[in-house]
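sorry for the late reply, my laptop died twice this morning and i had to redo everyting from scratch. anyway the thing you sent over, i finally got around to it. pasting the sequence first so we're on the same page, its 280 residues, then the predicted structure underneath. double check i copied it right bc i was rushing
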Amino acid sequence: MKSISFVNMKGGVAKTTLAVNVAYCLARRHDLRVLIVDLDPQFNATQCLMSGEDYKDHLQNCNHTVIDLYDDSPRPVVGSVKGATVSEVITVEQITPIEIKNNLHLLPGALELYRLEMSGGQGRELRLKNYVDFLRREDLYDIVIIDTPPTPSAWMSSALIASDAYLVPVKPEPLSATGIDLLRSVITRVSSNYNLNIECAGVVLTIAEEHLVVFREAKNFIDQAPFWKGKRFAKHLPKRTAVARAQGHQGLIIDLQDSELNLAITHIAKELLTRLGIED
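ok and here's the structure:
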């Protein structure tokens, strides 16, 4: 099993769109068992895969979210019979994702993640790694994709600690392209602090318009930069307003009638498998 974080410190680069659609493509086209962990407190990946009503039902039925993964403190529970009691701490082995489609599962995100304090010394930053290690031991998935928040934070660090590799979606524009060097410095710092051996799976250009100068400039920048040279995926994700519209009702790229988009996400998913060393 491989675990990979989709990371970028800049919002609006289609990070979540890429993560969700690559996951679905791997599950549907490659018959791999895929888990998406939505670690972004904005929980956009969850909204791409679950309707508002389904998510509300999920919470009302006390099903698990990332909050349960990280909140390792006992919680007060008030019952009409027994009165006030303290609930037992949920272990990582008890966390159960929800099945979205065949072979595709999701551990939903939650806005409440913002309120959960994660300071040094608590060990909470290791909870996701412990969960991924459990999934690996039990052989429950072939790949775990972690969607991270677009800011350097304890949540991004936790995702990197739990990952074998990271992938960087980049929108072809000057600020986004040059910002990946800052991202690299953050990843290097986390790797050093936690003695990680995390690999860069590559860079995918997203929201791409080939005819624009900024696209060619971003492409050349990545191809020529010492660290990023050779890491750009051969295919990029074209800009399409239809993708954003489809996400509003949980539509995914390979279900759209757009051959160029279909070809792009299929090739990106295939190249990711190659870069991760996963036999298809």
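The two ends are 13 Å apart (CA to CA).
thats about all i looked at so far, will dig more tmrw
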